[in-house]
Specification:
By secondary structure, this protein is of the alpha/beta class. The mean pLDDT is about 95. It has eleven helices and twelve strands. The longest helix has 16 residues, at about 245-260. α1 crosses α10, α5 packs across α6 and α10 packs across α11 (about 265-275).
């Protein structure tokens, strides 16, 4: 049986095993998908161990915080979007070695435009954070055609670096792309995406509510209790809150398609997972 897993720290909360098991059932693909808690200083060793322990049946893994940059460095072959992000959330193993891709951005765009029903073309978009999560989604967000994108981060230099890497892509699509510190974000936005670690750490929302246009979509890339604070903040200030559950399912569908060559019914699985998470 082909084996897959998700590696992270923490990882016990991950719904990825449930999602991929359901994808397999619905597409007739036989696979086993598990969680692996990885020591903070042991990512490369964990990947090597996974491949060695499974006698060649390990076919790939998903990578979550805080290892996405390390996964990019480990991969011997990178997709164009992973090269741009310099962060990887999907590894595929074959006779040519380790292939790295990043499906986070495609998953986020699909969730916003298809499940939330909010167009990104022509919008004003604020991306909070400049770490691995934000790096993974900025390219696909730009390709969706917003009018203006602002990347805001506590450390301005990191935001500037991320914007510089994506400057050519933004220019190609005629998009105004800017970097700002979190306290000094100018303007109001149609879509606000939280890619900071504040949710995971249970911290306060790192930006003032004035950035929200009335009725804006506010998306936290986390889900479950970790997203509750950001979603409450959005709701209190007249925005439409959305957690990262749809992004999770859609990025998983992208990974599944890369591994198995089959596109799973992500909309159905999202509906089923939402019912599980909400306890219905």
């Amino acid at each position: 049986m082909d084996l897959y897993c998700v590696m992270g720290n923490p990882v016990e909360h991950s719904r990825s095993p449930w999602i991929h098991a359901r994808f397999g059932e619905l597409t007739g693909q036989v696979l086993d998908y598990s969680r692996r808690l990885v020591p903070l200083d042991g990512f490369e060793a964990a990947v090597a161990a996974f491949r060695a322990e499974t006698s060649g049946t390990a076919r790939g893994c998903n990578v979550t915080v805080p290892f996405k940059f390390e996964a990019a460095a480990l991969a011997q072959h990178l997709s164009p979007r992973a090269m741009l992000a310099r962060a990887v959330n999907t590894l595929r193993f074959d006779e040519d070695g380790i292939h790295g891709d990043n499906t986070d951005g495609a998953g986020l765009v699909a969730d916003i435009t298809q499940h939330a029903g909010v167009p990104l073309a022509g919008s004003e978009l604020l991306l909070l954070g400049a770490g691995g999560a934000a790096a993974g989604v900025l390219g696909p967000l730009l390709e969706a055609g917003p009018r203006r994108v602002v990347v805001a981060n506590r450390t301005l230099a990191k935001a500037i670096d991320l914007v510089r890497r994506h400057a050519a892509l933004a220019l190609q699509h005629g998009i105004a792309l800017e970097a700002h510190e979190l306290p000094s974000v100018p303007g109001e936005f149609d879509v606000v995406v939280n890619g900071t670690a504040s949710s995971l750490a249970g911290g306060e929302v790192p930006v003032a509510a004035r950035v929200l246009k009335r009725g804006a979509l506010a998306v936290d890339m986390m889900y479950g209790p970790a997203a509750a604070g950001f979603m409450d903040w959005a709701r209190e200030h007249g925005a439409m809150p959305r957690d990262g559950l749809g992004m999770l399912v859609e990025q998983a569908a992208e990974s599944f398609a890369l591994w198995r060559g089959v596109r799973p019914p992500s909309g159905q699985v999202l509906g089923e997972l939402r019912a599980v998470v909400d306890g219905k």
